[in-house]
Specification:
Largest sheet: 9 strands, mixed
Strand content: 15-25%
Helix content: 25-40%
Structural class: alpha/beta
Mean pLDDT: 92
Radius of gyration: 22 Å
Distance between the termini: 28 Å
Order of helices and strands: HEEHEHEHEHEHEHEHEEHEHEEE
Oligomer: single chain
Length: 347
């Protein structure tokens, strides 16, 4: 892989989680072996990465090459097609790492007709960035990561509800970064009442996710610190049409029936492209029995809690035959100060 392409992918990775329902993209313009322009898509509705890089390069772009992590767009959205901008600046070559299967027209043909050489340089690191994006766009649902912190025997809390510091402080720091790379974090009202969390990003200049709370009944204790915190908005999904917001930072979203798919579709329409689920056993188990989860992250603490299992992170009413058990594949493992982080995807 060209190191110019590597730079473009790194730029895309840096803005992951801040582009809403748009993909994170990086671009690098090169002329005579020298970088003359850099760009990344910084937020939904803003200039695309190619435009950012070309604007920086200016006249130096003419006759140069642009390296892009994703095939340049060919449609009018909130901004004009990037292929038009590339043609306008007189580039001689376009190199991209991933084909955009959601485009309405063939970008390669448009560019080649304009006399621009096009090279598709497939790169797995870039493909990993967009795999869930393509699925999310086609289904109009957010990319979903579920995170759970548990003991070796799968408990999120003791039978008495004690859950603080099952995993260690280094895991907490890793979770803060996870929140930073997602548009929103979703939980249940039961977790708010039990743990009184804030779901903020406690890292320097970190991006705080929108906090989404599920509560069919709308029996909300607005004195909990999440509702008092103004770091980011709080959205409450409820079937209680009489529930009122205590302040402008809390939005009440009323649905006649709070089905998961309807909630997720509404979340996507509101601009949430990457959603993190941090919840208790009830909400966690409900999601794990669906096809909505793209990625599961489990943090295991090296301790055994025991008890009845009422706070086991995955619970079902039915006993599942082993032949029908949901299968995962392990993508990566990492030891975080004696706690194990495991990233999995459904097979």
């Amino acid at each position: 892989m060209s190191y110019f392409m590597n730079y473009a992918i790194q730029l895309a990775q840096m803005v992951e989680g801040q582009t809403g329902v748009n993909p994170p993209v990086g671009a690098v313009v090169v002329k005579n072996g020298r970088i003359v322009g850099l760009g990344a898509h910084l937020k939904q509705g803003d200039k695309h990465a190619e435009v950012q890089a070309l604007d920086m390069a200016g006249e130096n772009a003419k006759g140069g090459t642009i390296y892009i992590s994703l095939e340049p767009c060919t449609h009018f959205g909130s901004t004009p097609p990037c292929v038009n901008k590339i043609i306008e600046f007189g580039l001689s070559k376009v190199v991209y790492a991933v084909k955009d299967t959601t485009l309405p027209s063939e970008g390669d043909a448009i560019l080649e007709q304009a006399g621009i050489e096009v090279e598709y340089q497939y790169t797995e690191d870039a493909a990993a960035l967009y795999r869930d994006f393509f699925k999310a766009k086609s289904e109009q649902l957010p990319e979903i990561t579920m995170k759970v912190s548990v003991s070796l025997d799968g408990k999120q809390a003791t039978d008495m509800g004690q859950s603080k510091w099952i995993t260690n402080s280094d895991v907490k720091q890793d979770v803060y970064h996870l929140r930073h790379t997602h548009d929103a974090v979703l939980t249940g009202n039961g977790t708010i009442n039990a743990d009184n969390p804030q779901y903020t990003t406690r890292i320097p200049n970190g991006k705080h996710p929108i906090r989404i709370v599920l509560s069919r009944s709308g029996n909300i204790d607005f004195t909990k610190q999440l509702f008092q915190d103004s770091s980011s908005e709080v959205w409450i999904y409820t079937e209680n049409e009489h529930l009122k917001s205590p302040n402008a930072n809390v939005k009440i979203i009323y649905l006649t029936e709070c089905k998961l798919k309807d909630i997720l579709k509404d979340i996507y329409k509101r601009g949430i492209g990457k959603l993190l689920i941090e919840a208790g056993p009830r909400v966690t188990s409900e999601f794990l029995q669906t096809h909505f989860i793209d990625q599961l992250i489990i943090y295991y603490a090296p301790k055994i809690i025991g008890g009845s299992g009422k706070n086991q992170f995955y619970q079902t009413n039915d006993v599942i035959d082993l032949n029908h058990a949901t299968q995962f594949e392990i993508i990566s493992t990492e030891l975080i100060n004696q706690n194990l982080k495991m990233i999995l995807r459904k097979k």
